[in-house]
Every structure is written in C-alpha cells, then in structure tokens.
C-alpha cells in the first residue's frame, strides 16, 4: 500500500498550562526513538504555541493551532490571524472542529473562508467534518459528510496542504467509536469526493484522519482500516505516555502496510 505517511495529531483543546510543556518535550523525545514514526503534530492552546514551537524546533514534531480568524488583520478584538499563528511557530491549523461549529455557530462557509486565508498565509489545514448522533441514527452520515466537505474545503486545497479529519460528533469524548468498517465506509466517501472535486485518479494522495475517542486500546484496530491515514486525538494526547502509545501503534501499522 502506498498511501501518504501516517499522521498522528493531538488536539489539546482548552487544556494546558506552561508546566504541561514538559509533555511536549516528552512527545518530542519519544517520537525520536520510535522507528518508522508517523508525522506528529500537537495542537496546544494558542498561549503555548510559541514556547511549544521552540521545544520541537529541529525535531520530527510540528505544532499547530486550533482555529484562526477569517481576516488577515484588523479590528477583531480577541481574535488571532493565521499569520500570527505562523509567526508563533504553528505549521498547521485545525478548522471546523465540531466544538467550534456547535459552540461558536461556525458554518462550513466560514470554515472554507478561514481555510483559504490559512493556506494563503502558508499554513497547512486540518478540516474537520462529522455527523451528530441524531444524524447518525437517521442514516444521514454520508450526506452530512459530503455536504460539509464540499462546503468547507477551499478550491486552493492540495494533498500537501490539506488534511481532512472525520470526527463523528457522537464519538468525541464519549468513549464510543464507530466500527472499523463504519470508519472505512465514511473515509471511502470522503476520498471519492476529493477525487471528483480535484479531478484525481484515486484520491489516495489525500490524508483522511479519523478522530473521536481514539485511545491506545483502539488505535491499532483503527489503523487496520487501509483508508485511515492517521488519527486526530483529543483527551488521549494530553499525556505524552498515552499519546506515544498511539504514535507507536501508527508506526507498527505503517510497517504492516509496507509489508503487504
Ligand atoms: O475532538 C477530538 C479531537 O479533535 C477527539 O476528542 P477525544 O479523543 O477526546 O474524543
């Protein structure tokens, strides 16, 4: 299988104070000793971006941010621009996370505009999509994901700059996750949309991540799906030891894949 290199992302959400930077150090050092390590990006809160970026400088680990403003600069009190994030050392930004869609009323249209701004600023993007429990139960998963993807991704997206994360809202922080087959089915839909939209032959160059209650206990089975190019981890990324177990599971999975 010759897909992209596996990718493990840790979304710290609104967690982390300066003493927690030791976790970033431990992740950096741990990744350096994992053979066939995946690409790893940690997304701490904005207050830690600069310090975290300095810690990972010259290492295999990158630092990302969790949101940006749609504008480049101006009178937007309390907001952060993509250029500011880049200036603090972030290489990537998560956009359209379901927590922002739900709590800040972010629409896919806004996500797409933010994504275009981030790409113009030279920042990579992780665009999140995923259905709610109600939509899942009503059999709307495929249509919701298709629509969110179409509306959230800017035309400027490329496989090098853009990652899609499928995060079913009902799986986030719940300890419940879809079966590997369910994840595979949605990722196939996502890849099909990417293939059609960007006129590619297979869609296999794009990274499609799974997120939602990923843990050391289920990471290996998640990577059993050849459609999974990586994971977006919330709670289990806060402690380096736990996050490194997931990173190691990704490394073993990439070895199994290349042996096929
Ligand atoms: O929302 C998530 C990552 O962006 C997933 O969070 P949990 O891993 O805590 O379920």
From TrEMBL:
<feature type="binding site">
    <location>
        <position position="213"/>
    </location>
    <ligand>
        <name>substrate</name>
    </ligand>
</feature>
<dbReference type="GO" id="GO:0006094">
    <property type="term" value="P:gluconeogenesis"/>
</dbReference>
<comment type="pathway">
    <text>Carbohydrate metabolism; erythritol degradation.</text>
</comment>
<dbReference type="InterPro" id="IPR035990">
    <property type="entry name" value="TIM_sf"/>
</dbReference>
<comment type="subunit">
    <text>Homodimer.</text>
</comment>
<comment type="pathway">
    <text>Carbohydrate biosynthesis; gluconeogenesis.</text>
</comment>
<dbReference type="InterPro" id="IPR000652">
    <property type="entry name" value="Triosephosphate_isomerase"/>
</dbReference>
<feature type="active site" description="Electrophile">
    <location>
        <position position="97"/>
    </location>
</feature>
<comment type="similarity">
    <text>Belongs to the triosephosphate isomerase family.</text>
</comment>
<dbReference type="InterPro" id="IPR013785">
    <property type="entry name" value="Aldolase_TIM"/>
</dbReference>
<feature type="binding site">
    <location>
        <begin position="234"/>
        <end position="235"/>
    </location>
    <ligand>
        <name>substrate</name>
    </ligand>
</feature>
<keyword id="KW-0413">Isomerase</keyword>
<keyword id="KW-0312">Gluconeogenesis</keyword>
<dbReference type="GO" id="GO:0046166">
    <property type="term" value="P:glyceraldehyde-3-phosphate biosynthetic process"/>
</dbReference>
<dbReference type="Pfam" id="PF00121">
    <property type="entry name" value="TIM"/>
</dbReference>
<comment type="function">
    <text>Involved in the gluconeogenesis. Catalyzes stereospecifically the conversion of dihydroxyacetone phosphate (DHAP) to D-glyceraldehyde-3-phosphate (G3P).</text>
</comment>
<keyword id="KW-0324">Glycolysis</keyword>
<dbReference type="GO" id="GO:0004807">
    <property type="term" value="F:triose-phosphate isomerase activity"/>
</dbReference>
<dbReference type="GO" id="GO:0006096">
    <property type="term" value="P:glycolytic process"/>
</dbReference>
<feature type="active site" description="Proton acceptor">
    <location>
        <position position="167"/>
    </location>
</feature>
<feature type="binding site">
    <location>
        <begin position="11"/>
        <end position="13"/>
    </location>
    <ligand>
        <name>substrate</name>
    </ligand>
</feature>
<dbReference type="GO" id="GO:0019563">
    <property type="term" value="P:glycerol catabolic process"/>
</dbReference>
<dbReference type="GO" id="GO:0005829">
    <property type="term" value="C:cytosol"/>
</dbReference>
<protein>
    <recommendedName>
        <fullName>Triosephosphate isomerase</fullName>
        <ecNumber>5.3.1.1</ecNumber>
    </recommendedName>
</protein>
<feature type="binding site">
    <location>
        <position position="173"/>
    </location>
    <ligand>
        <name>substrate</name>
    </ligand>
</feature>
<keyword id="KW-0963">Cytoplasm</keyword>
<dbReference type="InterPro" id="IPR020861">
    <property type="entry name" value="Triosephosphate_isomerase_AS"/>
</dbReference>
<dbReference type="InterPro" id="IPR022896">
    <property type="entry name" value="TrioseP_Isoase_bac/euk"/>
</dbReference>
């Amino acid at each position: 299988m010759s897909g992209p290199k596996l990718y493990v992302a840790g979304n710290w959400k609104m967690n982390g104070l300066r003493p927690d930077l030791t976790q970033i150090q431990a992740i950096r050092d741990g990744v350096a000793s994992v053979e066939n390590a995946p690409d790893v990006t940690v997304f701490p809160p904005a207050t830690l971006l600069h310090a975290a970026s300095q810690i990972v400088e010259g290492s295999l680990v990158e630092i990302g941010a969790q949101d940006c403003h749609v504008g480049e600069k101006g009178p937007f009190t309390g907001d952060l621009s993509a250029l500011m994030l880049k200036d603090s050392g972030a290489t990537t930004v998560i956009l359209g996370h379901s927590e922002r869609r739900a709590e800040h009323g972010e629409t896919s249209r806004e996500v797409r505009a933010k994504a275009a701004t981030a790409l113009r600023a030279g920042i990579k993007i992780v665009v999140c999509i995923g259905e709610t429990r109600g939509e899942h139960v009503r059999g709307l998963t495929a249509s919701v994901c298709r629509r969110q993807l179409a509306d959230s991704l800017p035309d400027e997206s490329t496989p090098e700059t853009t990652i899609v994360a499928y995060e079913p809202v009902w799986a986030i922080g719940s300890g419940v996750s879809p079966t590997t087959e369910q994840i595979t089915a949605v990722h196939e839909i996502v890849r099909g949309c990417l293939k059609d939209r960007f006129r590619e032959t297979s869609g296999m160059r794009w990274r499609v991540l799974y997120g939602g209650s990923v843990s050391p206990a289920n990471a290996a089975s998640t990577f059993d799906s050849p459609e999974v190019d990586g994971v977006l981890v919330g709670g289990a990324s806060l402690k380096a030891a736990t996050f490194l177990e997931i990173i190691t599971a990704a490394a073993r999975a990439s070895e199994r894949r290349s042996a096929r």
